[in-house]
Amino acid sequence: MMNAQQPPSAVTLPRAEAPPAGRRRWWSASTAAKIALVPAAVITAVCFYAFVGWTVVISMTRSRLLPVYNFVGLDQYRRLFANERWWTAMENLAIHGTLFIVGCTLLGYVLALLLDRATRGESFFRTVFMLPLSMSFIVTGTIWQWLLNPTLGIQDAVRDLGWTEFVFNWIVRPDRAIYTLAIAGVWQQVGLCMALFLAGLRGIDPNIWKATRVDGIPTWRVYTDIITPMLRPVFFSVFVLLSAMVLKSFDLVVALTGGGPGFSSDLPARFVVDHILNRQELGLGAAGAFMMLCTIAAVISPYLYVELRSPRKEA
Amino acid sequence: MRYQRFILYLLLSSAALAMLAPLFFMLSTSLKPMDEIRDGSLFALPHAPTLAAWGKAWSGACIGASCEGLSGQFANSFWIVLPSLFLSVGLGSLTGYALSSWRVPHANLLFGALLIGLFIPPQVTLYPMIVLMRELGLYGSVPGLVLVHVVWGLPFVTLLFRNFFQTVPGDLLKAARIDGAGFLATFWYVMLPLSLPVFAVAMILQFTYIWNDFLLGLTFSSPESQPVTVALNNLVGSQFGEQEYNLNMAATILTALPTVLVYLFSGRLFVRGIAAGAVKG
Q1: Which of A82, A286, B63, B103 could anchor a disulfide with A59, C-beta 3.0 to 4.6 Å?
Q2: What residues in A contact B16, CB-CB < 8 Å?
Q3: What mean pLDDT is predicted for residues A56-72?
Q4: pLDDT of residue A58 exceeding 90
Q5: Domains (ranges, CATH) in chain B?
Q6: What is the pLDDT of residues B91-136, one digit of tens each?
Q7: For residue A293, which residues of chain B lie inside 8 Å, CB to CB?
Q8: Which residue of A57, A138, A250 is the best one to mutate when testing the B interface, meaning the one whose CB has the most B CBs within 10 A?
Q9: Cβ of B95 and A147 within 8 Å?
């Protein structure tokens, strides 16, 4: 990646200055480092950990519009688990999550493999595939809301071409709206997966290719039997990345379906925000938020374990 | 072999077409008058392209009660993004530097804690953050939005810089130390020039993330400080009766334009940044 071994001539060092003899000893450079870490430490302790704790506390109270500290134990969780909208949202998360992760990974990998073989036009195709990544989920949602609109979008346009019976009205159907979310989501994020896989493919030792050529192994077999298993860590990071993304999915569903028709395409992130901001159900929202946290913890703890145990030496 | 290359480029081209088609339809719709949208086909090119919808989206569209278009919120987004960008990259780079290049007790603990913070969904700490902003008197203001972006951007920028600074040879730091450079001087004269590409990457990605943010803008802004993504969503969602699709599409393109331009002009740096630290959803 980054080349850290730049020639030292690129570095301008300040002229040496002898430290004053009477310099007080408690002030050393590492004191400065400690001071520099204070803002980060405060933000981490307060805005992440204390605030997560606060949310957990609120989730065990009867708080509605404002936090009140009359503890009711796990009542809010009981209410949450009895709430039909919550379960619809969780079921939708499972459907959308699976489709989004599988779709993105699969298409992203195929695109990366194709680009890996392409001798020309790589940067053009890469630019095109990654273009949607630069846009907001709100933008993506708005575009696809228009394309999926049955009276004006793709359905209407295909009917105009002569297939008058063509039906593609998923966005207005309660049983199908959730699937449209994955279409827009994959369109937006497939470039990310492609980029990560492509970086992985480029990192493969060229000697492996030479060796397989000597052995006369067909290209596709090299990919299926040798390269793909070697990329296991990349698949793992892509999975973690997409899971974290899908769990936080809020903007896209707001812009694309608004959670509708009814609550048929609702997601947990939207449930939580709606209950905290609009419905004055702070306790219930906090309980939902904590459940979101538990879900993500289950996915990322293996990742963090690996990441924190072996500090990476390369950027 | 020839036909294999043909199939390869056929597949790549159809994928590129699938990615570009929605954007093309968006652009062509934004140039059509409403009659043409209603009666014509999505696939048809505009007969008489007009920028009327663009003008309206910029300065005449009604969002809620006011009919001043997106220009005000577009400006808001810049006022939110620019300070957030400099503050979050500044603080994140300094934190990453202190964590990677100096012996500070519990540095790994802090780094681990920050890394976990990267994965905490913003919804979980949303309400406490609202209270904090209210207590600080910053709720609904641009400085408040800047502060929340700095908070939520810190783990990502720190990770990016910490991973880079770890690759800098320790001898270089020692040499600077011997020459009498302290903490900040080493950062400024040694680390900063080395890490200019990382700075560029961090700037580009933070610009994209902050401009594209919706949740924080929705939660922490007031009508006066609303960012353009929130305004776009309100514009599209709040029209009564028939939707003005040309207007919606023009507004969408306007909202997306700054980040798309940054992406197109930054090219390889964007790709590099994605590969280096794509962790922030």
Answers
A1: A286
A2: 124-125, 128-129
A3: 82
A4: no
A5: 2-50 (no CATH), 71-275 (1.10.3720.10)
A6: 999 999 998 888 888 888 898 899 888 889 999 999 999 999 999 9
A7: 120-121, 124
A8: A138
A9: no
Residue A202 placed within a domain: yes
Q: How many residues does the structure list for chain B?
A: 281
Residue A306 resides in a domain: yes
Residue A231, domain member (yes or no)? yes
Residue-wise pLDDT tens digits, A9-24: 444 444 444 445 444 4
Contact A70, B128 (CB under 8 A): no
How many Cα atoms occupy the beta-carbon half-sphere of B204 within 13 Å?
Answer: 26
pTM for the predicted model, two decimal places: 0.88
**Which residues of chain A lie closer than 8 angstroms to B198, CB-CB?**
2, 315
Asked if B31 and B246 touch (Cβ cutoff 8 Å), the reply is: yes
> How far does B190 lie from chain A, in Å, by closest CA?
6
Please tell me the predicted confidence (pLDDT) of residue A265.
Answer: 84
Pick A153 or B219 by higher pLDDT: B219
CB contact under 8 A, B180 and A17: yes
Q: Which among B12, B121, B182 has CB closest to A32?
A: B182
Q: What is the number of domains present in chain A?
A: 1
Q: How confident is the model at residue A3 (pLDDT cuts 50, 70, 90)?
A: very low
> In the numeric block, which tokens belong to residue B241?
């009766």
Cβ atoms of A97 and A246 within 8 Å: the answer is yes
User: Which residue in B has a C-alpha nearest to residue A203's C-alpha?
Assistant: B275
Q: Please state the three-class secondary structure of chain B as a single string.
A: CHHHHHHHHHHHHHHHHHHHHHHHHHHHHHCCCHHHHHHCCCCCCCCCCCCHHHHHHHHCCCECCECCCCHHHHHHHHHHHHHHHHHHHHHHHHHHHHHHHCCCCCHHHHHHHHHHHCCCCHHHHHHHHHHHHHHCCCCECHHHHHHHHHHHHHHHHHHHHHHHHCCCCHHHHHHHHHCCCCHHHHHHHHHHHHCHHHHHHHHHHHHHHHHHCCHHHHHHECCCCCCHHHHHHHHHHCCCCCCCHHHHHHHHHHHHHHHHHHHHHHCHHHHHHHHHHCCCC
Q: Say yes or no for a CB contact (<8 Å) between A13 and B175.
A: yes
Interhelix angle A137-148/A177-202, rounded to 10 degrees, is 130
Structural domain harbouring A229 = 75-314
CA distance B50 to chain A (A): 19
> Chain B: residue nearest A247 by CA?
B121
Residues 6+ positions from A270 with CB-CB distance below 8 Å: A89, A250, A253, A254, A259
**Residue numbers in B near A1 (CB within 8 A):** 272, 275-276
* B110 vs A contacts (CB less than 8 Å): 37, 40-41, 44
* CATH number for the domain that contains residue A213: 1.10.3720.10
Peptide bond into A261 cis (omega under 30): yes
| Any domain includes A239 | yes
Q: Does residue B184 or residue A165 have the better pLDDT?
A: B184
